[in-house]
Amino acid sequence: MNFEEVYNNYLEYASKRHKKQGLDTISKNFRLHILPYFKNKNVNEITKFDIIEWQDNIYLKNFSNNFNRNLYYEFSAFMRYCVYYSYIEFNPVLQVEKFKKKFEYKQHHVYNIWQFKWFRLHLQDFIIKQYFNFMYFYGLRPSEAMALRFSDLERFIVHIRHSLQRKGKRNLDTPKNMSSVRDIKINLLMYFRIWLLKRYYIKIYGVFSVDYFIFGGKKPLSPTTIDRRKKDACNKANLFCITQHEFRHSYASRMIRKKRAINEVSKSMGHSTVSMTVDVYLH
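Given the sequence above, the corresponding structure tokens read:
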């Protein structure tokens, strides 16, 4: 059967097993980096030599190790589906070794506490200021912080139960993985800041609902708005600009420098394994 026809069937199968964002990523990767090489072939004609030739072409594009690894697993998952539905007898991807890793120097830019306070001083928007306070001091993923509603707050405990899709309709979604479902204890100052946000929304809307987003009110904050205000504050403070996700890196770096146990840091960040925290942050 033609590769592209089987792939269209696979998308229907995968749509019931992946979150929308994950499915969008798989679809994009296939469309750009797998389909162009195999769409005119029948799936039962693909050999390990075709896979090796495909790998050689991917190497030329100089993608990151992480991206290459994901491509390999996504292609292998598709071929596993083909075996399961008897389009082919075995998975040819597994006959070929994974992409060889190249040397990569990864550097995460972070703010220390004084840089963060200087950055915060130049933020004009009250809601966005509290958003970055939460990101820096509690290490959430941006999609998790943007998804927080007042119903997720139980006195000094914040329940992380959702993430927000960053594109499209920006619907609430499940967190990245099971470990991402967690509870975070906040201090009295952060609780007071959230209370101030509640009072602010009552003043703006005249009413209040627990379904309001903590950082945004009736609607969650827009990532582009956050980035624009962040960039303005960095320019005014004459600071190098870090990404929203690097505020999460800043949290991890600060906790490790404070000698917090690595397993505690890992749990608070919602990592699936302690080794992930070690690999990314301990250096």
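The mean pLDDT is 90. Try to locate this feature in the token string yourself.
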